[in-house]
Amino acid sequence: MEGCTDRDAFKARVPVVTYEDLRPEIERIANGDRSNIISSHPISDSGTSAGERKLMPTIEDELDRRQMLYSLLMPVMNLFVPGLDKGKGLYFLFIKSETKTPGGLPARPVLTSYYKSDHFKYRPFDAYQVYTSPTPAILCTDSFQSMYSQMLCGLLVRTEVLRVGAVFASGLLRAIRFLQLHWKELARDIETGTLSAKVVEPSIRAAVAEVLEPNPDLAAFVAAECAKDNWEGIITRMWPNTKYLDVIVTGAMAQYIPTLKFYSGGLPMACTMYASSECYFGLNLRPMCDPSEVTGFHNAAPQFRFVRRKNVLLSIDSDKTDEAELQAAVERAARLLAPYGASIVEYTSEADATTIPGHYVVYWELMLKDCREGLWPEAAVFERCCLEMEEALNSVYRQGRNGDAIGPLEIRVVRGGTFEEVMDYAISRGASINQYKAPRCVSFGPIIELLNSRVLSKHFSPACPKYGPPKK
């Protein structure tokens, strides 16, 4: 095989593998083995992905390759939106907490690795990559201090902002919700030229002090716009020169498109590259088109659209919950109903993106052994069931809940016979009665409407599930 360059020989020597195929080697690296197991280059980091975080060894050269790809994004965008080097980008960027593997390698999300690297912190000036957010704010793990200072700095240069974005659509909507909750404090800071005492990180205070000075006119404008009941088009009202939104709106993030259109006044949404935690695939050479039109070829290079994550049932942000995980969570919560003689007949779920942040909704149809009045479980029992389900979900979900990425899980109890009606509806649309099974997740509008019209009660998780911060 030596010296062969044909495709079949390559496939024979380098077969397609899954994470499970490589898990033993990855665990050796995580546990401290520094021999040339997967790469001849030293492993510098251990990125993470998927529901229960999967470790992905990374070498220093990989950040060089990613940096090179980043440098190509804006020149491509400039072909469609000229003049992007004449203004700034308001991007809400955040890092997440990290741990260490038993062998001492840092284990953290891929973007956290990039933001904390010298590649990002000491990047050379690029007129196409001027951000309004100070680097210390992006590198702060306290979500309030980070968001507050990034929003404040974005407001201070509102007319210079040419694009607004975040990694995921959900992150940009969280920023808008943050503005709804804290505009009075932000306006006060702008008026007085002093940063809120709630922001205590010295590096952030020093960075913000360089751009913050009293501006009563701007403060009055922010207050007047945010005090209005109608927030339609708030992005273009706050940042009037915004040409597009730079966010991922494919896959599970597509559920946020209507809300983003409402808040942006219909601005175009650009997805600039093909990427995943495992690797970056390439550039999107048609970033301004609808995701459904990305497909086809550019010369011999394939163009494709991201449809969904494999085996993922529910996703709000970076969380990924599959059917088996949801089933286990429901079974765990159902045990709390046993003392009341209640059991779950059937269930389904949806990722509700109409709230900010979005949250999981689980529909339960119950059966009682004793139907006498007064034996129905009280509201507090269902609330405990919500929290019990959250405790059973993966660490990425629980981390998102302990931050501000995911809202409290909700259980909606529906009346008896509801899932029979769902089945009847599915059969009326052509489903086979012999092969029908209740869907464990629904996104089809008429079925969601049917479920919601049969709701008897709604219950939310009363607290965040346990998620311990990494030990220092």
Automatic annotation (TrEMBL):
<protein>
    <recommendedName>
        <fullName>GH3 C-terminal domain-containing protein</fullName>
    </recommendedName>
</protein>
<dbReference type="GO" id="GO:0016881">
    <property type="term" value="F:acid-amino acid ligase activity"/>
</dbReference>
<dbReference type="Pfam" id="PF03321">
    <property type="entry name" value="GH3"/>
</dbReference>
<dbReference type="InterPro" id="IPR055378">
    <property type="entry name" value="GH3_C"/>
</dbReference>
<dbReference type="GO" id="GO:0005737">
    <property type="term" value="C:cytoplasm"/>
</dbReference>
<dbReference type="InterPro" id="IPR004993">
    <property type="entry name" value="GH3"/>
</dbReference>
<feature type="domain" description="GH3 C-terminal">
    <location>
        <begin position="325"/>
        <end position="443"/>
    </location>
</feature>
<dbReference type="Pfam" id="PF23572">
    <property type="entry name" value="GH3_C"/>
</dbReference>
